[in-house]
Amino acid sequence: MRSIAVLTAGVLVVAAAACGGKPPGSSGSDATSMRVGLAYDIGGRGDQSFNDAAAAGLDDAKRSFGLRTVKELTATPGETDAQKAERLRVLAEAGYSPIIAVGYAYSEPMKKVAPDFRDTRFAIVDDTMARGPNISNLLFAEEQGSFLVGAAAALKSRTGHVGFVGGVESPLVKKFQYGFTQGVKYIRPGYTVAVKYLTQPPDLTGFNDPAKARLAAQGMYDAGADVVYQAAGGSGAGVFEAAKEHQAWAIGVDSDQAMTADPEVRGNILTSMVKKVDVAVYDYLANIMDGTVKAGPTVYDLRLGGVDYSTTGGHIRDIQPRLEELKQEIIVGKIKVRAA
User: Would you indicate the residue range of the signal peptide (predicted)?
Assistant: First the structure.
């Protein structure tokens, strides 16, 4: 497994390898013979968030391993479980293996498809419900990273009022909310945390609606919030726009968004809760090739460096020593961060 350096929804990464008739991943694979496909959920490559992080993992694998053939596909808003299942099935029937679904929206489709292709390796990011002997669950302790940016928000807020904008009100996104709120309250118990979700399941357009996120954040800033954390995929761009309009702070998610967002808003991004989806994708492909892949969950937490906070822009330089103290207290178990 690649060492992880210190640095939420819907991508599908698919790799196909010639395995000499043996079960995929059982004795390693030749990267030069692999056919790799990337099928994104709504937002796709260029969302400056979750999808881009997954794409970066595959790009890293291409450079490191010499992967030669890559195809990228993007789902349309409102896609059904049946359509997702059909995509997995078509790929499996064509001999692709492993098939990695990055995003909890693929949970039910994978439950239906994976048992029909027991010699095909599957993995899914951000989901624990799809289980099987040929399924690996690639998970993150989003609540731990969110605790740290919540602490940063509390330490930087001057109004005592901060906010959280979630894309879709799902168990996964609630992990971000719970961790953030705990971080704020740990530092400043009396501070107010406003919460707004853009859509409810099964409507996943909350991950790709910047206009709706902008309105939600504007309402929070107008009500007195001076820091708003977004866990909303491509919708997060709207939160950044609102922060700039109000000369306030926003907090990014999944990747270091002060490096990827529109240059016009980067100065208003206090920090980002970085989630190393790229590492999970890279590691899984590496483990397939060396034959060490395993079924079941792997959790990328603070201890493994799978989640963290970013420092781009230098806006949290003054509070970074305190954040590092909190990080170590979480790692050693002194602070328990709940995920629900």
Answer: 1-18
84 closest CA partner among 230, 202, 194: 202
Nearest in space to 163 (alpha carbons), one of 250, 281, 83: 250
Has domain 11-141+277-300 been given CATH number 3.30.450.20?
Answer: no
Q: Where does CATH 3.40.50.2300 sit in the chain?
A: 11-141+277-300, 142-274+308-331
Cβ atoms of residues 227 and 163 within 8 Å: yes
Task: Give the tokens for residue 233.
Answer: 């995929």
- Model pTM? 0.83
pLDDT digits (tens, 9 = 90+) for 261-286: 999 999 999 999 999 989 888 988 88
> pLDDT for 3-22, tens place per residue?
443 333 334 444 443 333 33
Instruction: Determine how β-strand 307-309 pairs with β-strand 269-275.
Output: antiparallel
Letter string b/e over residues 288-321, b meaning 16 or more CB atoms within 10 A of that residue's CB: bbeeebeeeebebbbebbbbbbbbbbebbeebee
Cα separation, 227 vs 263, whole angstroms: 19
Question: From CA 91, how far away is CA 16, in angstroms rounded?
Answer: 9
Residue pair 326/146 in contact (Cβ under 8 Å)? The answer is no
